[in-house]
Design goal:
It is globular and about 60 Å long. Strands 3-2-1-4-5-6-7 form a 7-stranded parallel beta sheet, with helices on both faces. The chain has a 6-stranded parallel beta sheet with strand order 10-9-8-11-12-13, sandwiched between helices. By secondary structure, it is an alpha/beta fold. Helix content is about 45%, strand content about 15%. The mean pLDDT is about 95. The chain contains 15 helices and 13 strands. The chain folds into 2 domains: about 190 residues, Glycogen Phosphorylase B (Rossmann fold); about 160 residues, Glycogen Phosphorylase B (Rossmann fold), CATH 3.40.50.2000. The structure holds uridine-diphosphate-N-acetylglucosamine and uridine-5'-diphosphate. The site of uridine-diphosphate-N-acetylglucosamine (UD1) has 24 residues, from helix 1, helix 2 and helix 3.
Length: about 375
Amino acid sequence: MKILALFGTRPEAIKMAPVVNELSMDPFFQIKVCVTGQHRKMLDQVLEFFEITPDFDLDIMKFDQDLYDITSRVLLGLREIFKSFKPDMVLVHGDTTTCFAGSLSAFYAQIAVGHIEAGLRTGDLLAPYPEEANRSLTSRLTHIHFAPTEWSRNNLLEENIPANTIFVTGNTVVDALLVAKTKVDQHQDWSFHCYGTARTIVEANKPFVLITGHRRENFGGGFASICGAILELANQYSDLHFIYPLHLNPNVQKPVQQLLNQQSNIHLISPLDYPPFVYLMSRCLFIMTDSGGIQEEAPSLNKSVLVMRETTERPEAMQAGTILLVGTNKDKIIIEAGKLIKQNKTISEDPKVTNPYGDGKASVRIKNILKKWYTGETEN
Ligand code: UD1
Ligand code: UDP
């Protein structure tokens, strides 16, 4: 079975890497990897860790690119690749514009699409933006839907996607996390790892809150409010440190640098390689983020997450009690973060908490389903 695995951003690479590595080990598959290069540095960091060398690289990233740039460049770039390598299936992931434009391009070439992390929904086309549209549109073009949970499967059924094309596999992010966690556990000292001004904090085992943020719908007012909350928390809790690996998007860099770089207990650092970031997640007091993937990883590391978004497509973690949706309201963020700081405990103290997103075997399940699909044996 000829497969083209397609991805372009940091989170897609993290979540696709275990699938690529699983399929590569099985001679049933002839797998080639195409990266769009929607991200560059943040993508290459992940490729290096998982030892993946792309067969094709569209190298599309431009400084401060917009959605038209990404969509058109992916669409046209893939046309040429589909002419030279004619896969039986293109595997796409999640909700990025690489994912949607890649599915559309495959559809135009009449190539089947397998969608990993299918069926996540907020029900609001504008939040997250443009991801909710990207993932919904991709579902219309997909032949096999790999839904991470029963909840995501049900979302697809409600949209009249045929049940026999949907498979619940767990989320591959847990597979990836286990690989990184093993590496982290083998090396006890990650303090030499490009933590910038945060290095002394990490080395001295001082308590810190870990922060990330990059959502397009938070640009402008949302970021101003989030930064205002972080600044006030840093003033209020001056013994605590706030470590913030900054996404390379200039729409994130500029406001965050402007608003937060004068405070001595806030550490704005470069995006981290995956294992050192996992190490920081495992060491922090709790996480404040608008990231999707981090909401799925944190339960495996026994960490609470304050989600600085108005909606989430990951309600399973809310039900498990590992995430709390706080939105971008400054006062709400300060109140909820304050509660976690005062409690000073992780969720590990609750033995009932398990990761609702997976068990680390999603990639093997995806591999087995692909084989059955190719040989016409899929029954669901
Ligand atoms: C993208 C995805 C988003 C995903 C996020 C993960 C879309 C529309 N957005 O958002 O769904 O959650 O990635 O991080 O698909 N940049 C660099 N180097 C890098 C990466 C980015 O310089 O390695 C800068 C560039 O100036 C680039 C900008 O960031 O133009 C924005 O990148 P883009 O992929 O368009 O948006 P993200 O906010 O990263
Ligand atoms: N991550 C990382 N280095 C960092 C910040 C995040 O490796 O400095 C990882 C994180 O563990 C998660 C993924 O990147 O697996 C999340 O990516 P991002 O927040 O960019 O995208 P989203 O998940 O929101 O789509």
